[in-house]
Prior knowledge:
binds farnesyl diphosphate, 6-stranded parallel beta sheet
Amino acid sequence: MSDASVTPRHVAIIMDGNGRWATQKGWPRLVGHRKGSERVKTIVRAAPDLGITHLTVYAFSTENWKRSTEEVLGLMKLFARYIQREAEALSKENVRMCFIGDRKRLEPKLQELMAWIEKRTENNTRLTLTVAINYGGRDELMRAARKLAQQAAEGLIDPDAIDESMLDGALDTAHLPPPDLVIRTSGETRVSNFLLWQAAYSEYEFTPILWPDFTPEVLAEILSRFGHRDRRFGGVKT
Ligand code: FPP
């Protein structure tokens, strides 16, 4: 069992490698995404017992629209199916499901499902699962800046009063603590526009494992390494 004093509360994951996993096996990329979606379920189930209270996963970036129409539509279908098929289990397991990202570009039916599951699970407290769809850190910061500028233009806030906490509150992640740990699978070592503001002091872990092969055991191993790190948040060791 993990030591609560060093267990990250909020773990964020860049789930990379679905396409390569499928291609290596001679299967279409969407098979990799389907398997990846199964992995999300497994990790959501395992997370609370590992001491995690907030799990954020990067499912679709603002750049992912550049992929083929077939892949984009396939992913959107997977998101809708996940919400429909997991609704019961999430409620039973006391998991709150939320989304970050700009929803306006998503199909109205998917937007409805997202709002529905958020409402249905809003009082659940064991784990907060946040799924990033049409999410980009720069896009999120731009939308937050616009929101605050609009409020200032309407005379609702004083521009000089804008501080870090006000900006925090204008971000999609206003409901979340900052991530303690960001994990990226598949051997890539980029941040890829994920939680740019929020991860300012996060630890990063990069694993060569492709997301469809990621298991609770791998996660537990990464968390145990996290326990040995010395997080100083810019200060000095006391
Ligand atoms: C990156 O791998 C993965 C994605 C862009 C999609 C992530 C989606 C899922 C894991 C499935 C659905 C998720 C939920 C929450 C239901 P890649 O395709 O870029 O892999 P590659 O780099 O090997 O091509």
